[in-house]
Amino acid sequence: MITPRSHAFVAQMEQAHGRELRRFLASHLKNDSADVGDLVQEIFLRLLRIKNHEAIRNPQAYLFTVASHVLHQHALQRSARPELMKPLDLAVEFDLGTAPDPADELDIKQRLERVDRDLMQISPRAYAALIMYRCEGMTLIEIGERLGVSHTSVRRDLVRAIAYCNQRLHQMD
């Protein structure tokens, strides 16, 4: 449920980092700069869904982590190669075959989006750590520095995030 506090948090984030966020997205999109507005909207919608935004220690780092994840998903959607359509390389693998059925692709995408949304609501830090580790290729130490926690905490968050994702995906089968 979106609360007035969530709206205030997102408004504050937009005011403090909106211009920088747009430049960041535009620099990564290059030829697709027309999509910047849509991606900004998606990022702020994801921030609105966070139930416990007070738990975020570094809101700016979290904002740009979410932005990186949205950019990654955008790139995957733009890609014509089916093997890149898996948003996160979790322990669970999907066999899409050589000619995937569009209904199956949609089902997989919806499942992963549900897991993504649920994980973000359960633990924003674990979500951020997973994205930085899997999508950006950062080390545990780099993630810890960016989030302001120890690498041991990052490892614990990653284990919890991956286990949660695997559990949710298996429950959906």
What secondary-structure arrangement, pairings included, does this model have?
Layout: H1 4-29, H2 36-48, H3 59-78, H4 102-122, H5 124-134, H6 140-147, H7 151-172
Helix pairs in contact: 1-2, 1-3, 2-3, 3-5, 4-5, 4-7, 5-6, 5-7, 6-7
Task: Characterize the structure shown.
The chain has one domain. It is 70% helix and 0% strand. Helix 1 runs antiparallel to helix 2, helix 2 crosses helix 3 (59-78) and helix 5 (124-134) packs across helix 7. The protein has seven helices and no strands. It is mainly alpha-helical. It is globular. The protein has helices spanning 4-29, 36-48, 59-78, 102-122, 124-134, 140-147, 151-172.
List keywords for this structure.
single chain, 173 residues, mainly alpha, 0% strand, globular
Give the termini distance in whole angstroms.
Answer: 26 Å
How large, in whole angstroms, is the Cα Rg?
A: 16 Å
The proportion of residues forming helix, as a percent range, comes to: 55-70%
Largest sheet: none
Order of helices and strands: HHHHHHH
